[in-house]
Amino acid sequence: MSGINTRFAVGIHIMTLLEANKDEKCTSEWIAGSVNTNPVVIRRITGMLHKAGLVEVRPGVAGAKLARSADEITLLDIYRAVQAAPENALFGVHEQPNPECPVGRNIQQTIIPIFAEAQQALENVLARTTLTQVMNGMPV
């Protein structure tokens, strides 16, 4: 399977909630209510964000908070933290095309560089978009 999974959108949602409610206790149950999912999903993704150094959590204590300023966190940070797509594999190519066909024999080597360039363009946009910019785009 390839492509961006929903962990990326949920990761952005979690991080935005933490920033918007930084003076509150943001529990996984409360966040799950906003995302409309199970708290276990929130804890799993929050764990990924924590491992990447984006979120602070303390064992045995409910709640999480951003590990650094929202201006310093980019969407690319979140994208990579939650492993939204395998590295260099946002776009998948079909396995084993027919080597007897001129198109089948050459299609992968032709489209893989195009896919890599498209993924790089996406990552460039994510790298220049901060969590603060996301926050500023919403009437929170």
Question: In a nutshell, what does this entry contain?
Answer:
The chain is mainly alpha-helical and 140 residues long. The protein has six helices and two strands, in the order αααββααα. Strands 1-2 form a two-stranded antiparallel ribbon.
Helix/strand class: mainly alpha
Task: Tell me roughly what share of residues is in helical segments.
Answer: 40-55%
Return residue spans where pLDDT drops below 50 for at least 5 consecutive residues. Answer: none
The general outline is elongated
* Tally of DSSP β-strands: 2
H and E string: HHHEEHHH
- Order the strands across the largest sheet as they lie in space: 1-2
- Biggest β-sheet, characterized? 2 strands, antiparallel
Radius of gyration: 18 Å
Q: Give the CA-CA distance, first to last residue.
A: 35 Å
Average of per-residue pLDDT values: 90
Number of helices: 6
What portion of residues belong to β-strands? 5-15%
Report on this model:
This protein has 140 residues and is mainly α. The protein has six helices and two strands, in the order αααββααα. It has helices at 7-20, 28-35, 39-51, 75-81, 102-127, 131-136, and strands spanning 55-58, 61-66. It has a two-stranded antiparallel sheet. A hairpin with a 2-residue loop joins strand 1 (55-58) and strand 2. Helix 1 crosses helix 3. The two termini are 35 Å apart.
Topology:
Layout: H1 7-20, H2 28-35, H3 39-51, E1 55-58, E2 61-66, H4 75-81, H5 102-127, H6 131-136
